[in-house]
């Protein structure tokens, strides 16, 4: 059965702000895998990357996190489809940050999804039939067992064989278990010195499938060393003087470390096993895997650079690093297995090797030229780009990047041709072209009339005003001589209070409380309305304004938001409690996955509330029942379903602590202009959400989809961006 790709990300609480470099890191790995030095992102993880059907990035031009929450109810599909969300810092040149430095995009590449250099370096399908890799393995992807050496191949390539006369006294690893395509891979490499006996091991390295070094040990040879081969081995006489480890010690350790179905990977691994005097039945030899004509073999250094984009065995280093070589061989085998023979053949390694040799010859010739000639030649040549851009890397692997957008948008200063004029046209082209591309960037826009800076300022003020109203509650009436301290204490058990004032304009006193988090205000309304506080039976309600008329609907939708699935809010904690204390207190709750203790972003002090995330939604519901009536360190707890557990709580805090700098009359004019167009804007946003829904539903399963609100960064102000992401599964939703 085909494996499904999976995405996991710890985007909870304070770990939800992602930089442009981190986003680039994700997209590069998703599209390239381990090719071109692409590594797993540091902030999330893609499982079974090679099974991804494609990568689709949807960019909502000039829109920010502000737009998403202002029109939260209109973005019905987005808020229900994507589990993972993160905050983005705004950028003046957003698309360029996705491509990387030095993007070499020609108009036809962008408009039609064609490659520029790929047609020159990638062989035609008819030529592939003659490639030695295709002749040996065929074009279809296979599991790792198809690439392990047969017994005949091992004999032919001088591998130590069990029962062979030349292997008397060799240690057998006893890894006899049946190999499957899920068997673990281990990279192995040794460095040898020449002794009176012949080649003897002086250093051994073993790495696991994740690239973690399990063994990196110096070994003292049994016989007298004739030549340390320091230039290649890196071993010196001084290094081996204190070493007590001998070959039998290493043999015993390796035998214990390798599971019974282990597959060893190495480059000309026969030499390593001969030196180790060990026999292992299942091996992948990368010098044979990347097949060439007439029995020739590629060097490991060349393959690492050409396939993985990694520089190993650098001349600046003294000798080879066996751990580095073992890891390179392992990653080469993983790349071959994940990408398949056809993709490897498309790299056209023979041509790359020829080009590299020609470049070396040219470089050597240049070294003999007079200095003034070399300087003049450099002045006439275009500047060298030190970092390959993302789309250039895609083209080298034969993938066809696609970029679709509107004519009135600025694509990082790049010339465009045959671009669409409306979101509807972009959608139609995307439905046709995205299935033909493995990496697509689709850019939609609300139109220039809706992204003007003066409208953005008014929109920001409206959102801030609505948030303030939703965070605010009024409680009362109280007796004239009521105790304000006891009121503050009671309402403080619902969560952190930002401000508390007494309302004196009424016949009897009321209090106005503004909280820092939405859950606290909602908890106060739910648990204290009709309760007796400070000797009075009080009513608790939000202010009655036009902005909060749909508050109940919004609260309900936030509770159902996939980001808040399995997350509860707990208040009434003592501020002296540490995260470790709380972990211990809540450890008995079933399926607890993560605890997040918010803190003031200015002072760094912890608040009196926390969020608990559970592996299962039902476990979160059960936890709410368990916590009812709980007392921790003398403090009674209150809890409810989370409303803003992810990146939203941070954004609310920032909005709540920023003040508008516009003058009253100017702001009034902006608000009036916004009111005139807001109804149209809601319709536009709703239509945009439907476009994204239609495009998303057309994607193949196992497609990574990333929706980006880039944010706004201009002289008129800055608004942080927002990212939503997930891998589409059979249910049509982006699973975790």
Automatic annotation (TrEMBL):
Assigned keywords, A-Z: Exonuclease, Hydrolase, Nuclease, RNA-binding
Gene3D superfamilies (UniProt xref): 3.30.70.330, Ribonuclease H-like superfamily/Ribonuclease H
Domain of life: Eukaryota
Domain RRM, residue spans: 471-545, 566-644
GO MF, one example: exonuclease activity
Leader sequence segment: none
Annotated CDD domains: REX1_like, RRM1_NEFsp
Record Pfam families: RNase_T (PF00929), RRM_1 (PF00076)
SMART domains: EXOIII, RRM
GO cellular component: nucleus
Name of this protein: Putative RNA exonuclease NEF-sp
Organism field: Aptenodytes forsteri (Emperor penguin)
